[in-house]
Predict the structure of Chaperone protein HtpG.
Amino acid sequence: TTGGEQHEFSAEVGRLLDLVVHALYSEREIFLRELVANAADATDRRRFEALTDAARTLPEDAKVRIDPEKDARRLTISDDGAGMSKEELARNLGTIARSGTRAFGQELAKHKPEERPSLIGQFGVGFYAAFMVADHVDVVSRRAGSDEAWRWSSDGKGSFTLSPATRERPGTDIVLHIKEDADEFLDAWRLEAIVRKWADHIAWPITIRRDGEDKTANAGTALWRKPRAELTEEQLNDFYRHVSHNFDTPWATLHWHAEGTLEFTALLFIPGSRPFEFGEQVRDSRVRLHVRRMFITDEAGLLPSWLRFVQGVVDTEDLPLNVSREMLQATPVLARIRKAVTNRVLNELRSRAKDAESYAGFWENFGPVLKEGIWDDAEYRTDLAGLARFRSSTQEGLTTLADYVARMKDGQEAIYYLTGDNAGTLPASPQLEGFRARGIEVLLLSDPVDSFWPDRLGTFEGKELRGISQAHADLDKFEAPQDDAPRADLDALLPALKAALGEAVSEVRGTNRLVGSAVVLSASAQGPDLQLQRLLRRSGQ
Ligand code: ADP
Ligand code: MG
């Protein structure tokens, strides 16, 4: 930085630098994502410009190179992209008001979609992230179609210099003089891990120099951006295993591109088996959010928690690359994507449910999770009740609520269910006897969440859901089975039993609910259901 023209940053840049270095990004490693994104962006741009100017044609081996030099404490990110003229260097790296990418985005709007390269980053913040890890940055750039190269140089503290330079080919080198406390970013392995994490799906090769050799670090395919016809099942399954860390094959693969008010591509998977560690630990959806192919976060809550078993990627055009956590929480875009994606997954489930056997396997794995949605998501409660499947006291296999309602006896007003924590012994419960004797079907619910959702759902197709362990089950309305056995003399027995049990029970009375058993423990009509009482006791309430 000897000589050269001295320029002041625009006032906004000074403020922005402070913001970037101190507050904007929680993780410093993101500087690499930003610089790699810019390099890929510039390469896209050059390819696009070459459509109308052959002098800017992209070399066939165009790539992004990352070169850490430990001894010199220097990290260089180079590309074969469009490059910048002297004026562009001053404008693009000296102000934020005029982001080259943003201007280019407006230019793009005038072109047909098939002519558009995919662009990363529409907002002018990213480059300054370099100053999180560097105390000095040199940018050497040669505009494609020109012989001139220029060096932009700054310590990020308010001014930059511009001086003539040389560069063999068009493109840009970003040279970071790494800060004392940022050694880790001179380590090739560390850099590779960052590229894998944040930029694996950049379409251009990204190489990292290690032991004198350039090794490609990214997988390089934004798989989801390809048309389904170009993808093999094997590729999709590999990708599923990569994003989910599962080892099975997916039960369902959903791949679609939404256009219109929202623009996004989604590639989602429903696992074919219940992941080993799935359950209580994983509470939120880990579907990955990408913006223009760049990974942003897997904590955007792209799906409701009751679809947290769904794996995959949503890649949108409608958010800025440098979207912050706070912005993610506030933006309506995400809420709209979430709704669209949720509805799409539910549609898929509805259609896959037509294959009862296959759907039963899915339900076995993830039904309990979906039922959480009946409990805590008013918006989707009814949809989910329609998708739910149940064991029943009278049916083989699984039944739906709708089929149950269609089978209800004349005069039957409610959908009866029995909860318990052992699916194996539930069909033998004495609670069922009176119902069984009268030919009344009872749904058998044995998941912990089953103690909660029926009350929330309340009714299905106008029929109330009623637990049979509540004392006043409605058996009197139905004809009792013929029973010639002599009646026990309860008038003497009941007070004696109450006296013996004391405070342990609130009441002892006769019942028409039993056929083969002598006694049954029953919940009062007002209090909580028996299974719920057990759960509450277990959780110390
Ligand atoms: P954004 O990428 O969101 O526009 P940045 O701060 O990351 O904002 O970059 C500012 C501008 O600098 C870019 O829009 C682009 O015009 C220019 N730029 C940055 N890096 C490069 C590069 N490697 N090659 C060409 N132009 C670049
Ligand atoms: Mg950028």
In short: Residues 30-50 form the longest helix (21 residues). Residues 18 and 413 are 68 Å apart (CA to CA). The chain has a mean pLDDT of 85.
